[in-house]
Amino acid sequence: MSDSRQPENSGDCCVTAVNTKRRCLFALLVLLAITQTGCVHRRMTIRSIPAGALVKVDGDEIGYTPVSVDFTYYATREITLTKDGYETQTVMQKVQTPWYQVFPLDAVSDNLLPFEVTNRHEFTYQLQPKVVVPTEELLNRGNMLRSDTQIGQ
């Protein structure tokens, strides 16, 4: 009886070893990518002149100026500043998206960078003093309006 088995080719062994090394290297890179993911830290600081104004961002109180708050997404934010003796100021403030957070680059900066990127936005607002109308002047204007409406009837 003759042996019908062919001798093993030594080239197959090298190819298998190279494929195993490639798979291990790929697995290592995937593991590193998962554990060493980058992150973009987004922070906005709001200041007022004078300081000490109550700040609301999108209706949520965040504190008194100067105040900083983290945020998740870039958008136009409604910022309201309130302080005794000053006019309440409401601003629709656009928070600009940096170039590295634009699609498709945001996938890299959010997930694959081996370090954290901090993106800071600072906004300063000048508050206007509240104009207090003297009581006498207010009553005179009211009486003039009343008389104007009575004449018109």
Description:
The chain is an alpha+beta fold and 153 residues long. A hairpin with a 6-residue loop joins strand 5 and strand 6 (89-94). The strands form two sheets. Strands 3-2-5-6 form a four-stranded antiparallel sheet, with no helix packed on it. Strands 4-1-7 form a three-stranded mixed sheet. It is built from three helices and seven strands. It starts with 9 loop residues before the first helix and ends with a helix. Helices cover 33% and strands 31% of the residues.
Question: Which labels suit this protein?
Answer:
153 residues; alpha+beta; four-stranded antiparallel β-sheet; three-stranded mixed β-sheet; 7 strands
Note the topology.
Elements: H1 10-35, E1 39-49, E2 54-57, E3 60-64, E4 67-70, E5 76-82, E6 89-94, H2 105-111, E7 116-126, H3 135-152
Parallel strand pairs: 1-7
Antiparallel strand pairs: 1-4, 2-3, 2-5, 5-6
What's the short version?
By secondary structure, the chain is α+β, with helices and mostly antiparallel strands. Helix content is 33%, strand content 31%.
